Amino acid sequence: MLLMREGSLLMADKKLTAPLYDAAGATKGTVDLDASIFGIEPNVDVMHQVVTAQLAAARSGTAKTKTRSEVRGGGRKPWRQKGLGRARHGSIRSPQWRGGGVVFGPIPRSYAERTPKKMKRLALRSSLSARAAEDQVRVIEAFDWSEPKTKAARELLTAVESGAKALVVLGDSDVVAAKSFRNLPKVNVLQFGQLNTYDVLWADTVVFDNSALQALSGAAYEVTQSDFVKEDDGGEEE
After folding, report:
1. Count of domains in the chain?
2. Does residue 136 sit within a domain?
3. Do 150 and 197 sit in the same domain of this protein?
4. pTM beyond 0.70
5. Tell me, what CATH number does 135's domain have?
6. DSSP SS3 for 141
7. What is the pLDDT along the chain (238 residues), one digit of tens a residue?
8. Which domain holds residue 169?
9. Do 147 and 101 fall within a single domain?
10. In-domain check, residue 124
11. 43: closest CA among 100, 120, 126, 119?
């Protein structure tokens, strides 16, 4: 396994592998996993921050209340200022009146948080490494189904011993497989380019199409010193 110590990576002798299956669920051997993606020490703090930002960005932010200037009515002073023994009021739509405006109520806003790309890359690699350390990564050689079949998808997940919740990562052209998995409960289907930290951590088991796994290994997820060392403090380590 790869370990992060003082901004560096240490490679252990153990080779990272995952079981390989065909589309029917028969064992075909093992496939090597990229140690720079599936073999690092998970950074829990970074994963937490990225997941929090991802959930915040998913909020609609459409809650809205009306202020006293936006509610209907209240243009006339309800009674004269003096002489009646009542408290002074200038409008029946001020906040203390029933049907009046709301003070400091919510207004439409964006909850999105800025997350650096290096942080998102590190969080994704940390989440994949966590699943690999738990032996919860499966690889399918190829989805050679001729037509969408939910039954075939269910039997495949049973054969590979996926957990209660499964994330299926497909290549760009696996339309038949995507349609086969999409109706299964507690199964999330993503294309390779949509892979994210939250969905990996949500799932008990991550099932990769072999083409998607190879594309992931060839993407720009390599570990660099800049992922662990501050750039503005003279090179001191975090």
Report:
1. 2
2. yes
3. yes
4. yes
5. 3.40.1370.10
6. coil
7. 344 443 334 444 468 899 999 999 899 999 999 999 999 999 999 999 999 999 999 999 999 999 999 999 888 899 999 999 999 999 999 999 999 999 999 999 999 999 999 999 999 999 999 999 999 999 999 998 889 999 999 999 999 999 899 999 998 878 999 999 999 999 999 998 899 999 999 999 999 999 999 988 876 554 444 444 334 444 444 4
8. 2-59+114-227
9. no
10. yes
11. 126
Cα pseudo-dihedral 84, 87, 93, 95, rounded to 10: -170
Q: Which residues contact 141 (CB under 8 A, 6 or more apart)?
A: 20, 21, 22, 23, 28, 210
Copy the structure tokens of residue 163: 């957990």
**Are 78 and 142 members of one domain?**
no
Same domain, 133 and 223: yes
Whether residues 136 and 216 fall in one domain: yes
Closest CA relative to residue 126, chosen from 219, 50, 18, 207: 50
Nearest residue to 207 (alpha-carbon basis) of 96, 131, 121: 131
Q: Looking at 141-186, which runs of residues are DSSP E strands?
A: 166-170
